[in-house]
Write a structure and sequence with these properties.
Length: 466
């Protein structure tokens, strides 16, 4: 097979050159479209199920949420194992699939099973899927420079404006907010006053919920104009919550302010985010979607930040605290310089050792063609251009050149052997045409210097006359 391939290549050199040029052009296109990242993604193929049940102990979370979910998710197809973790008020279940399993197919199977498992959970508890990212998906961290604005307002800007703007960037799976305070209305009940008025906690909760809604009426027309009737009942201030009636005692309404203290404050936090020891900060984490191009996603996020910054309050700006694009560029530039240096050194070594420019050029041409072709395979197998893959290509240059040199030397050796065989065959044929004793017949004659030589005189050719 190899011999036939060599014969075909020698007899069809133009076709071979066209194929090589085509592979090189395809490889150059693959280099430009290759996914670029600093480190390879070696994380497991997993789907995360997150369930929140605030105020419950880890043991209760384990018994009521984590255990039912783990036992029902173990029977999914192509699942290797299922892990569960219970924390205060939160449950995390990690479903690890086989490496060859498509991540979005896996998420669909988990959603199907959650529809059945949700009925086994306590009322009001809804499990949700985590973002379709990986363990190395945190590609960019940022904080807000907002002097003069309290942490609650900064968190509101992050959650209700910035987060929604950056989530529209292609390739972004999630914008995870951190720091600051999440504003909420808190109603602190006085148990003594509840007992005095004969009220219970569920009654207060029900009254607040019933007064925080909006009801619709119907449409009617008058004088050719249509009117829509509705009631707006959303709570918008502390005073409105304080004035919600709970019951009537002797024609006097008992309000929330009579049995509780209402205030605007932040949600209870389990930690804080400090920036370089200068104090608390508010920001977000950009999580990249599975299988995306990290360098392209970071570039698009930065462009979107410029657009989002136009709508921020005066004095508020972005402060990027972690950006993987710098590491990506440094890694790619380092490997690129190494590749160029290796190609130059290898070219000089080939010229010095072979001392034949045509053979050296035929070997050196293999280097760019082979490197460009390797990127075709990287894209075909969905492998990003990172430190590991590019280092492997750099190490393979020696093997590429070594193979070329060996093939060239082997070709020269075979040609030399064949040339020696042809020379010996020609000499043998010449010796066969000579007399057996090896003597050449001589006749006497006179040379130009009067010396007798052994060259016979030619015999006269007989002539006839008509």
């Amino acid at each position: 097979m190899i011999e036939g391939l060599i014969k075909f290549s020698l007899r069809n050199r133009f076709i071979v050159l066209l194929l090589a040029a085509g592979l090189f052009g395809w490889g150059v296109y693959s280099v430009k479209t290759s996914k670029i990242d600093a480190i390879p993604d070696l994380s497991e193929n997993q789907v995360i199920v997150f369930t929140e049940w605030m105020g419950r102990s880890p043991q209760l979370i384990e018994d009521q949420i984590t255990y039912p979910l783990v036992t029902n998710l173990q029977g999914l197809p192509q699942v290797k194992y299922v892990r569960g973790t219970s924390m205060f008020g939160m449950s995390f279940v990690y479903i690890i699939f086989n490496d060859a399993t498509d991540v979005y197919w896996a998420r669909e199977r988990v959603l199907e099973r959650l529809n059945y498992a949700a009925r086994l959970l306590p009322g009001g508890v809804t499990p949700t899927l985590g973002p379709d990212g990986t363990g190395v998906g945190h590609i960019l961290w940022y904080t807000l420079n907002a002097p003069g604005i309290d942490l609650g307002e900064q968190r509101a800007i992050q959650d209700w404006y910035i987060k929604f703007g950056l989530q529209n960037v292609p390739g972004v799976a999630e914008i995870a907010s951190f720091g600051g305070f999440q504003k909420q209305y808190q109603v602190t009940l006085d148990p003594n006053k509840l007992t005095y008025y004969g009220l219970s906690v569920p009654q207060v909760i029900g009254a607040v919920r019933a007064n925080n809604n909006e009801a619709g009426g119907r449409k009617f027309e008058m004088s050719g104009i249509g009117y829509i009737i509705k009631t707006t009942g959303y709570l918008q201030s502390v005073e409105q919550i304080q004035n919600i009636p709970l019951k009537t005692v002797n024609s006097v309404p008992v309000r929330v302010a009579d049995v509780a203290t209402v205030q605007m404050t932040g949600e209870t936090r389990l930690g804080i985010f400090d920036l370089n020891g200068t104090g608390e900060a508010v920001g977000g984490i950009v999580v990249m979607r599975y299988g995306e191009n990290a360098d392209a996603v970071i570039t698009n996020v930065k462009k979107k930040m410029i657009e989002v910054a136009k709508g921020l309050p005066d004095g508020v700006s972005f402060n990027i605290v972690y950006d993987r694009s710098g590491l990506i560029q440094e890694s790619v530039n380092s490997i690129t310089h190494t590749l160029i240096e290796e190609m130059i050194v290898v070219s000089l070594v080939v010229f010095l050792f072979l001392l034949h420019w045509r053979s050296a050029i035929s070997i050196i041409i293999q280097i760019p063609i082979t490197i460009a072709t390797s990127f075709i395979l990287l894209n075909a197998f969905d492998i990003s251009s990172n430190i590991m893959s590019l280092t492997g290509i750099a190490l393979a240059i020696g093997v590429i050149v070594d193979n070329g040199i060996i093939m060239a030397e082997n070709a020269y050796r075979n040609l030399a052997i064949r040339q020696a065989e042809l020379t010996a065959e020609r000499d043998r044929q010449v010796s066969v045409k000579q007399p057996k004793n090896g003597a050449v017949p001589h006749t006497t004659g006179t040379g130009s210097a009067g010396i007798t030589t052994g060259v016979p005189k030619p015999k006269p050719t007989p002539q006839t006359h008509d």
